[in-house]
Design brief:
By secondary structure, this protein is mostly helical. The chain has nine helices and no strands. The protein has one domain. Helices cover 71% and strands 0% of the residues. The chain starts with 5 loop residues before the first helix and ends in a 14-residue tail after the last helix. Keywords: Membrane, Transmembrane, Transmembrane helix.
């Protein structure tokens, strides 16, 4: 059986979990104050922070798992997030605080850029090391059942569609969004949507509920945090926009899907034993 290498944990999962924790504080808790750029609406900051809440939970779960097959969807999804967010940051660099402004936001902007420059390179190198590590990939223990794949497929289709639309046509996406956003805001939110979509496609490919554990935790936490953010900033929502109601329902369903997926995951021996602790 191929286990997760210590380098993957120490060089990628753990540092990015710490970074995700910082973004949760700045975005979800503080509503974007002191972040790398200024959001048009605090709801956008909190919603993006909800994504980092889910990402943090996923990375912490991945740190505790010992089999590579149980971690690789979380790893690849996080690597994709870092690459896409770097591209968005560079595209809208003039709208960030990289050029100056508040000292805290200026420092966070440069820290944000440096992390997103380094993480894809480190992540790609460590992925090669992991793939060359000894061991075999175990067979799936459970067959794919349509009723377990269907909700994940829905997330895949919606997430991929919304994400591509927001990234390829940010102006049109900003006009249609259920609360006020800039093109930078909607592009960053589109990155999260696309990563959820692609991550869901990878989860469907894995098939085995055990291998979807970390992703299910992500669904559960991100969906719940998104609902909390939405309720917290109800005054920012365009209630005459039907998408507002659709978005709220989808986030509730995302959390429920995550809860079911987590309950379907395997028993405790999937987690690292003390003997395997680094």
């Amino acid at each position: 059986m191929k286990d997760v290498t210590p380098a993957i944990r120490a060089g990628f999962l753990l540092p990015l979990a710490l970074c995700a924790g910082l973004q949760v504080l700045l975005l979800f808790v503080l509503g974007g104050r002191g972040f790398a750029w200024t959001f048009t609406s605090p709801l956008s900051a909190a919603t993006m922070g909800a994504g980092y809440c889910g990402g943090l939970a996923m990375l912490v779960s991945a740190l505790r798992l010992r089999r590579w097959v149980d971690v690789r969807v979380a790893y690849l999804s996080t690597l994709l997030l870092m690459i896409l967010m770097l591209l968005v940051t560079l595209r809208y660099a003039d709208q960030t605080h990289l050029g100056g402004g508040d000292i805290v936001a200026f420092g966070n902007a440069w820290g944000w850029l440096i992390v997103h420059l380094l993480a894809p390179v480190v992540g790609a190198v460590l992925l090669v090391v992991q793939l060359r590590a000894p061991g075999r990939i175990p067979p799936r223990e459970f067959p794919r059942l349509w009723f377990t794949v269907l909700p994940i497929a829905v997330v895949a289709v919606i997430g991929t569609g919304v994400g591509l639309f927001a990234l390829l046509r940010p102006a049109a996406a900003a006009d249609a969004w259920p609360w006020p956003v800039s093109e930078l805001d909607v592009s960053a939110l589109g990155v999260w949507a696309l990563v959820f979509g692609v991550g869901s496609i990878l989860a469907i490919r894995e098939g085995d509920p055990d291998r979807q554990r970390a992703g299910a935790v992500n669904y559960l936490v991100a969906g719940t945090a998104s609902v909390i953010a939405f309720v917290r900033y109800l005054g920012e929502v365009r209630w005459d926009n039907t998408l507002s109601w659709i978005y709220l329902v989808l986030m509730i369903l995302l959390a429920l899907t995550g809860a079911i997926g987590w309950l379907m995951a395997g028993p405790a021996e999937r987690w690292r034993s003390p003997a395997l602790a680094d």
